[in-house]
Amino acid sequence: MLNSWTLLISNLKNTKVFNQIRCASQVLPQLSSEKYNVRRKQFGNIQASDVDYFKTILSEDRVLTDENDILPFNIDWIKNCRGQSKLVLKPKSTEEVSHILRYCNEKRLAVCPQGGNTGLVGGSVPVFDEIVLSFMLMNKIISLDELSGALVCESGCVLENLDNYVRKRNLIMPLDLGAKGSCHIGGNVSTNAGGLRLLRYGNLHGSVLGVEAVKADGTVIDCLKTLKKDNTGYHLKHLFIGSEGTLGVVTKVAIHCPAMPKAVSLGFFGVKNFENVLRLYASAKSSLGEILSAFEMADNDSISSTVENLKLPNPISDYPFYVLVETSGSDETHDAEKLSRFLDKEMESGLIVDGTVTSEPGKMQTIWNLRESIAGAGLIDGYVFKYDVSVPLANYYSLVPLLRQKLGSKAVRVYGYGHVGDGNIHINVTVPKYDQEVCSMLEPYIFEEVAKLNGSISAEHGVGFRKPHYIHYSKDVTAIHLMKQLKQLMDPNGILNPYKVVPEV
Ligand SMILES: Cc1cc2nc3c(=O)[nH]c(=O)nc-3n(C[C@H](O)[C@H](O)[C@H](O)COP(=O)(O)OP(=O)(O)OC[C@H]3O[C@@H](n4cnc5c(N)ncnc54)[C@H](O)[C@@H]3O)c2cc1C
């Protein structure tokens, strides 16, 4: 029998949990340059005259030089990386971005573009004294075509704000992620963010209709079309999707918003073993078909980390694995019948051992909260080594037990959760504090294992600062060479997000 829903989970809103996690540790992380032994490249040093120049482009309050004001821009979300920037600029228009970059290019001043600073691979914060170019004030919605669903906005719009805006017009954003209350659409595009709706709506290479971007030399590239079909020449917008601010800076985005589903339901189930998780996925695909919009899994340690660290109660009993199934469709009766047939079948077969199903928005939010909070819950253990890999489904979970065995008591927890429908698992290893010995046990071991499985060492978070020297585990040497040629072409002085994405050797 399915448990009746009990409101065990308090009314925690996503943003509240997010901030709780963000403030988990007040200890300053070690400087990235020291921790990872990086040498500063030969960029210019910022002079007082440069700051004065920027004050002629931007108003004074948008040129930050005070150490305390700048500190949050220097530290990443998981508190792993810390840069040494002494200057943050907050443009309000593409024109201002263009002026800033042209000047920086001439003076060989390095720049780190920053959105909501929720990136998980150290790409969003400087390594040395790169100027932080923050998009937080470029947050205007420009237009929405309610019929086609084409939304055009500036890159600093917060994802959740956009979703709230389009929902009032019966549309939704095609992507959703745990960081939605802070991440920017420009950051999402620059990382080709995946998230919870990818199974249904595909990735951003499909839903981004156009971008406006600024090259390192200040040239504005206008690819801001809102057409679904446009085969005129090279598809240049794709250069900026997922290039993590190394080829250009995204200033505006045109994105396709699908119709808001009329009927949404969410189930949270206990499952006996991982083999049954895969069998349940196969069954959900065939039984639920077009209404299946998310299929997520979390192992026992993932959920217990949110229960123990964030005090979010688990609405069902203790199980080795948990599965979250979301359906979204246009006909409540039809969708409910389909879901009910699926549940009856799989409870009878034993694939679902226990669970809860709800269509009430507040209760669905609470379940999603539990799932989305896993990403940050481990930070409360001290330090988290995070790996975001994709592997063929048959081997989806195989790395977790392997790492548990390898690390033994050196880890507080080793757990896996993620987007089963996309073959994307997040593996987290928590320890009381950053430990070089544990790091050496994990890297490059985990990347070697992923390569053996023909997987990708970064499914959705990107390469950033943490993985350029491991990119060869997932990219052929010829592809890496072309990446370097593109970087040279678009940013010959290498001022855009140096030390990131493109490997040095
Ligand atoms: C709790 C939590 C859950 C998450 N869940 C997911 C998930 O499900 N799926 C997923 O894919 N990611 C997830 N992430 C990672 C992160 O939220 C995404 O990578 C997100 O897209 C980053 O957006 P941002 O605005 O915070 O970018 P930032 O972190 O500020 O920057 C990320 C990268 O993009 C570059 N950048 C930012 N803005 C621009 C711009 N306008 N132009 C050029 N370059 C730019 C930066 O230089 C950096 O390299 C999660 C993170 C957290 C903290």
Describe the structure.
GO terms for molecular function: (R)-2-hydroxyglutarate dehydrogenase activity; FAD binding. InterPro entries: FAD-bd_oxidored_4_C (IPR004113), FAD-bd_PCMH (IPR016166), FAD-bd_PCMH-like_sf (IPR036318), FAD-bd_PCMH_sub1 (IPR016167), FAD-bd_PCMH_sub2 (IPR016169), FAD-linked_Oxase-like_C (IPR016164), FAD-oxidored/transferase_4 (IPR051264), Oxid_FAD_bind_N (IPR006094). It is found in: Peroxisome. This protein has 4 domains: 14-20 and 261-375, 2-Layer Sandwich (Alpha-Beta Plaits), CATH 3.30.70; 28-134, Uridine Diphospho-n-acetylenolpyruvylglucosamine Reductase, domain 2, CATH 3.30.43.10; 141-256, Uridine Diphospho-n-acetylenolpyruvylglucosamine Reductase, domain 3 (2-Layer Sandwich); 382-463, Alpha-Beta Plaits. It has 19 helices and 16 strands. The chain has helices at residues 14-22, 32-35, 48-57, 67-74, 94-107, 159-167, 185-191, 198-201, 204-207, 237-240, 274-288, 300-310, 332-349, 361-372, 374-377, 399-407, 436-442, 445-452, 477-490, and strands at 63-64, 88-89, 111-114, 131-134, 141-145, 150-154, 208-214, 220-223, 249-256, 263-271, 292-299, 321-329, 354-358, 383-390, 413-419, 424-431. The strands form 3 sheets. It has a 7-stranded antiparallel β-sheet with strand order 13-10-12-11-15-16-14, with helices on both faces. It has a 5-stranded antiparallel β-sheet with strand order 5-6-9-7-8. Strands 1-2-4-3 form a 4-stranded mixed β-sheet. Strand 7 (208-214) and strand 8 (220-223) form a beta hairpin. Helix 11 (274-288) runs antiparallel to helix 13. It is globular, with a radius of gyration of 23 Å. 50% of the residues are buried. Residues 77, 112-120, 123-124, 135, 155, 177-179, 183-184, 186-188, 190-191, 193-195, 244-245, 249-250, 375-376, 460-461, 464, 497 line the site of flavin-adenine dinucleotide.
